[in-house]
Every structure is written in C-alpha cells, then in structure tokens.
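U., I forgot to send this yesterday:
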Amino acid sequence: MTYLDPLADLIRSCLPPSARPPEGSDDLFRLYAVLLRAKGEGVTDEDVHDAWSAWMQTVDAGHASLVPFEDLPARTRAADAPYAEAIREAARRWGRGRG
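Result:
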C-alpha cells in the first residue's frame, strides 16, 4: 500500500451507487488519485478519460474508446462524469482533512 491507495479508496467511496468500476481497477483508481493530487476540484471529464485510456492500454489496447475525449460519442463521454465528480468530491473531503 502506498500513499495513493487511501486516496483511491476515498474516490471509490464518493462514487454514486450507479457507477460500476471495472473489475481489477485498482491501478485505474491510483491514476485517479494522481488526478486528485494534481488537479483537485479542477479535474475534468477529459482528464478522467485520459487516465482511463492510459490504464486501458494495459488491459485492452484495442478498446474502441481509446480515442481522444472529443472524438467519443456523447453517451460514452457521459460515462466519465461520475468519476470526475467523485474525484472533485474526494478533493473537497481530502482538503478538509488536511487543513
């Protein structure tokens, strides 16, 4: 366990019940934890997609959604929104706990 894991767990805890993270996504949530540390509440849906893309390249390099965010269909782009909001909420909670 590293300092990123508690942040990854915090992000997971901020997801709405309707979000269904993929199996074996611990490394993905560590990337989301990096976004939390680097961008905090300023994280965007596009940032989430970029992190997901970096992770997905190690899982399925031929995945159809491995394209720039702006080239995704609206429905696929919308799937990143709950994760971005969870990171923003985690940033708010983390900030309160740090100061």
